[in-house]
């Protein structure tokens, strides 16, 4: 059940990002008690989720169109996997248009506040929001960017024999590259390529060696990505801790100044 301060909390996420912390702390102090502690613990959004929140609060029509198009696409994908008639291609195209519209609104709203979030990160977050299996119970309060789900988003769906191979656009819809957009698909309806001629032993050995080098390079890149992700996670945690310390010190400074002013006025 929503608390009495929920509407005031919603207002926090609509304010300029630079004002969030001060407004949150002021609200927490005015409410006090356990509710005040809950409000003070609210996490400040980073730039991308803040911009996404602004679309929810200030461009609701675009946000609603995105969510509805995501729901239609997911239903079409599930229907196709289960062997039922579904126009996945049309649903996917409509969803891409809805994402582009939401991204444009987010960039417009952020620009008016003097900010510039990354376009790809916005697109990935909007895609993840609109294709999520469960709806966010607190829309407009996002604090971290999201990543689109892969095939795990279809857990529980039982594909019918031949359904996936008959509708390759279903699998392509879940193949998202690092830029947050679907990879280009091979043209459909063309004849299968002719079998490759047999290779001689020397060429086959060279091919295997090249594949081994490529696999080793891929493992190195994957390890580097994991190391970078871990480093980023540690830095984010340290930044969060430092921000909390700074906010406490800032509050103490304000209290000290008020106390000093009151003492001086009493002289």
What do these coordinates show?
This protein is mostly helical. The protein is built from ten helices and no strands. The radius of gyration is 25 Å and the shape is extended. The chain starts with 5 loop residues before the first helix and ends with a helix.
Write the topology of this structure.
Blueprint: H1 6-12, H2 20-31, H3 33-40, H4 47-58, H5 60-81, H6 88-112, H7 119-131, H8 163-166, H9 168-172, H10 201-266
Helix pairs in contact: 2-3, 4-5, 4-6, 4-7, 5-6, 5-7, 6-7
In short:
The chain contains 10 helices and no strands. By secondary structure, it is an all-alpha fold.
Class computed from helices, strands and strand pairing: mainly alpha
Helical amount: 55-70%
Query: Strand content of the residues, in percent?
Result: under 5%
The total strand number stands at 0
Features of the shown structure:
mainly alpha; extended; 267 residues; single chain
């Amino acid at each position: 059940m929503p608390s009495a301060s929920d509407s005031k909390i919603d207002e926090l996420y609509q304010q300029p990002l630079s004002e969030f912390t001060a407004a949150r702390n002021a609200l927490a102090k005015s409410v006090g008690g356990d509710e005040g502690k809950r409000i003070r613990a609210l996490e400040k959004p980073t730039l991308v989720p803040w911009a996404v929140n602004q679309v929810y609060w200030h461009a609701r029509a675009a946000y609603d169109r995105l969510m509805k198009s995501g729901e239609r696409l997911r239903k079409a994908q599930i229907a196709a996997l289960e062997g039922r008639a579904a126009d996945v291609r049309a649903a996917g195209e409509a969803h891409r248009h809805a994402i582009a519209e939401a991204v444009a609104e987010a960039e417009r709203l952020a620009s008016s506040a003097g900010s510039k979030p990354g376009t790809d990160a916005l697109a990935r977050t909007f895609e993840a929001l609109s294709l999520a299996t469960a709806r966010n119970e607190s829309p407009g309060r996002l604090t971290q960017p999201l990543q689109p789900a892969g095939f795990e988003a279809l857990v529980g769906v039982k594909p019918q024999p031949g359904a996936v191979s008959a509708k390759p656009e279903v699998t392509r819809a879940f193949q998202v590259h690092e830029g947050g957009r679907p990879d280009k698909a091979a043209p459909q309806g063309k004849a299968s390529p002719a079998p490759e001629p047999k290779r001689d032993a020397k060429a086959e050995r060279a091919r295997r060696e090249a594949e081994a080098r490529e696999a080793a390079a891929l493992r190195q890149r994957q390890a580097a990505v994991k190391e970078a992700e871990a480093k980023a996670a540690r830095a984010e945690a340290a930044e969060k801790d430092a921000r909390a310390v700074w906010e406490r010190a800032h509050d103490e400074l304000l209290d000290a100044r008020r106390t000093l002013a009151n003492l001086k006025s009493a002289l």
